[in-house]
Amino acid sequence: MHVHDLNPKKTLVVVILFVMIIIAGFFTLKQPRFKYKLSLEQSLKMLNDEEACFHPWQLADVLSKVNSNVVLVDLRDNFTYSRGHIPGAENISAYDLTDDKYFDHLKELYSKGVTVVLYGKDRLQANGPWMWFRQLGFDNIKVLLGGYDYYKEHKADLSKSKEDKSYILGKPDYNYSEMAKPVNSSASVTKKNKKKTPVIRRKKRTTTASGGC
Amino acid sequence: MNRNYIFLTLLMLLLATGVLFLPEKPEYKQTKPEDLLYEIIQPTRYVTTDQVAKMIIDKDPSLELVDVRDVNSFEKFSLTNAINIPLDSILSESNQEYFGIPGMKVVFYSDDDIKADEAWVLTRRMGYKDTYVMTGGLNRWIETIINPKMPPDDAPYTAFEQYEFRKGAQMYFTGVKIEAKTTKAKVTVHRKKKKAAPSGGC
Lengths: 213, 202
Known about the structure:
Chain A has helices at 8-28, 40-46, 59-63, 78-82, 100-112, 123-135, 147-154, 176-179, 185-195; strands at residues 53-54, 70-74, 90-91, 115-119, 141-144. Chain A has nine helices and five strands. Chain A has 213 residues and is an alpha/beta fold. In chain A, helix 6 links the parallel strand 4 (115-119) and strand 5 (141-144). Chain B is built from eight helices and five strands, in the order H-H-E-H-E-H-E-E-H-E-H-H-H. Chain B has a five-stranded parallel beta sheet with strand order 1-5-4-2-3. The model of chain B has no long low-confidence stretch (mean pLDDT 85).
């Protein structure tokens, strides 16, 4: 039998099988556990999103249970948490965030539309994890400005911090160029005089006896 | 012509056109999310103002300071040999050449550490390694290097050592007159004992 005389039906069966295997392969491909939902450009843009931040004065409503749609998450380690935390905060140490138990819990909160506020010792500690969750598409997660340190200092009257802008970072505290400008030339002269390093003259080593046996 | 062949050719052509519509892959290989979070949690990316000052004074050729503030602030004041890449334009193609240079340590800084840290997270996701953040940013630079404060008397010895270094660095960066106290350091010269002339021989 010549190869050209193959049954067209047989070919069709083979082709269909081939396509089926490829499709099955696509579906059984191991999905990565975490996937970026935001592109880099979107992630960069997100950083300027005022809605993604949580101000200390907004805590007042949470603590008095007026706003019950917020869950506070303390990212510090368990020991530090036990030494003092914002009332009602859950403790998920930053190292445990990817554990199934906690990650599924956060996913559940996301699907319920609950706002999750992350906080650490200061803003910086929670800022990275917050950016990470945002890049994964958790747009219910916010970062507490000022962190625990600011809360602790102002917990007596949180609503007052509405006027206080000290917890908003990213601003120069000094006039750098004014502070760091070189002092005038007369000063540098005195500096020169004082800096004079003693010159140490060392005797040249006498060359070891040349020649020899 | 055999029908089978025509059919197979058409199928192959169809598959080939499908390749055209594949999503474009980014040039860099992005860091996996779980790896990124792991590194975010590690504090290893933070370098102190003292460390940066020491590298500048030592003229360390592997140091690449990146100022992520806006152009105006950069022009008013910047650290020695820093380059300006405002955070907003950190993803632009022309800025990519500054990252991922083998052997170079990129140190981000801003007014404090938030923006610099955000720049770090983004570039780390892009897969660039050897990137760092100067803790406290320029505000702490002023507090520690340009205007160092004398530690209290009961401070540990290391605090005074650090203060001595900072005073020296202050002098380096501003040319400020240093106090007599620090200049008094005595220079002792240890001379090698003269060696006896080689004895013996022919």
